[in-house]
Design goal:
By secondary structure, this protein is an alpha/beta fold. 41% of the residues lie in helices and 25% in strands. The protein folds into three domains: 169 residues, Molybdenum Cofactor Biosythetic Enzyme, Chain A (3-Layer(aba) Sandwich), CATH 3.40.980; 81 residues, Alpha-Beta Plaits, CATH 3.30.70.2860; 163 residues, Alpha-Beta Complex (Maf protein).
């Protein structure tokens, strides 16, 4: 069923409020296998509303509208839709009784304003809003369904959950839909697509694969979605494809749904009874923050040093002044000595170290902004890796932190990428 969401309100168009209704509705509709093909926002103006709803009906089977159903003069949606469907407003006793019941809780009696609010299109199905004074209206024309709901988020959510979606279910409009979402790290969307070309070509018609990259942190979510009439059969097919996806990508997949690298690293450290410390420069404590955001980290995390200046690298981490003089603070040699120093200080099994030029200034021709070194000290030695990132400071810090955590993850799994070489 093709669906268009229409949100009415000048306050949305001028940026006075954020349109959370559309996002919530789309999420719920997706769960029920209803396709949202478009979201539209329109002003509180009669002709604009009529033109938008007509256009939406031409393109879809279901139009869901929010906004403009209050008791004030600028709430014109009800009258506008009544005119659009050649209907007329008439007093609706059940709506008025609901208003009276709600007002009674506050010791009030409905006046003429609320009698006006209880005027409803005669030929529409009225869906009573038990938590607010404005009901929803369900119109049908030419096998198209148009539902208008109040814009107050909690009232819209109530009506969608308790009235609209159950009615759609009763008509067997809703399909079964199942999702499995994996999270990958280490390859971008394009590279993953190349790796999964044969996998995608062999997918059953009922299963789709979506790539959902996050350019700020490097995560790429891979969502497998299945649609059908039988949920159990659908889940069986989807699980088989999920297994094939995991086999194809291997250790590039690190979790599911809302998992994070720091949470998985925490799990691995606890399982293996290893300890961790951190020596940071350009990341400024970001890696430590990620680690300490995971409950239970005190069982394996011993502490960290944010040695931003060269003096602190020398005095707190024992970096040789000659190393910085000869190779620079942003170098393999320096970051390795930072990791060694932290390992000696904290007596931990593993250490993460970082040093680089986060930007937006400070780069040179030899070491441009985005040049960053990370090192991971472990029981058998130290691994170091040079990163070449961009000129966005926040992204460089976030990406460096996640690359370091992912490198530690692979080390803990004994599955380190081939391009990382040991240094002793």
């Amino acid at each position: 069923m093709k669906t268009i969401i229409v949100n009415i309100g000048d306050e949305i168009l001028i940026g006075q409020i954020v349109n959370t209704n559309a996002a919530w509705m789309a999420t719920e509709l997706n769960i029920y296998g209803i396709d949202v093909i478009k979201m539209m926002t329109v002003s509180d103006e009669k002709n604009a509303i009529i033109d938008t709803v007509k256009s939406a009906m031409n393109e879809s089977d279901l139009v869901l509208i929010t906004g403009g159903l209050g008791p004030t003069k600028d709430d014109i949606t009800k009258k506008t839709l009544s005119d659009l469907f050649n209907d007329e407003l008439a007093f609706h006793q059940e709506s008025f009784d609901n208003i009276a019941r709600l007002l009674e809780q506050f010791g009030r009696v409905p006046d003429d304003r609320y009698r006006t609010q209880a005027l409803m299109p005669k030929n529409a199905k009225i869906l009573i809003n038990k938590i607010g004074t404005a009901p929803a209206m369900w119109f049908e024309k030419d096998n198209k369904i148009v539902v208008s709901m109040p814009g107050v988020p909690k009232e819209m959510m109530y009506l969608m959950s308790k009235e609209v979606l159950p009615l759609l279910q009763d008509r067997n409009i809703i399909q079964e839909i199942v999702h499995i979402t994996y999270i990958s790290y280490g390859k971008g969307e394009t590279d993953l697509s190349d790796m999964l070309e044969d996998f995608e070509a062999a997918l059953p018609s009922s299963i789709k694969l979506a790539y959902l990259p996050n350019t700020s942190n490097g995560y790429v979510r891979l969502r497998l979605s299945g649609r059908g009439s039988d949920r159990i059969s659908l889940e069986n097919v989807l699980n088989a494809q999920a297994e094939a996806l995991n086999k194809t990508l291997g250790n590039l997949i690190f979790g599911k749904d809302n998992d994070s690298l720091e949470a998985l690293v925490s799990k691995l450290l606890l399982e293996k009874s290893y300890s961790l410390s951190i020596a940071e420069s350009c990341t400024g404590g970001k890696i430590s923050h990620k680690i300490t955001s995971v409950p239970g980290c005190s069982k394996y995390f011993m502490g960290s040093v944010v040695a931003y200046s060269n003096d602190m690298k020398i005095n707190l981490l024992g970096v040789n002044p000659a190393t910085i003089q000869n190779f620079g603070a942003v170098s393999e040699e320096t970051v390795i000595e930072m990791a060694k120093g932290a390992k000696e200080t904290f007596k931990t099994d593993y250490v993460i170290a970082s040093s680089g030029i986060a930007g937006p200034e400070g780069g040179t021709e030899a070491k441009p902004v985005g040049t960053i070194w990370i090192a991971i000290a472990h029981p058998s030695g130290i691994f170091a890796k040079k990163l070449k990132l961009g000129n966005n400071r926040d992204r460089n810090i976030e990406m460096t932190s996640n690359i370091a955590l992912n490198t530690l993850r692979l080390l803990l799994l004994n599955q380190l990428n081939e391009d990382l070489k040991p240094t002793y």
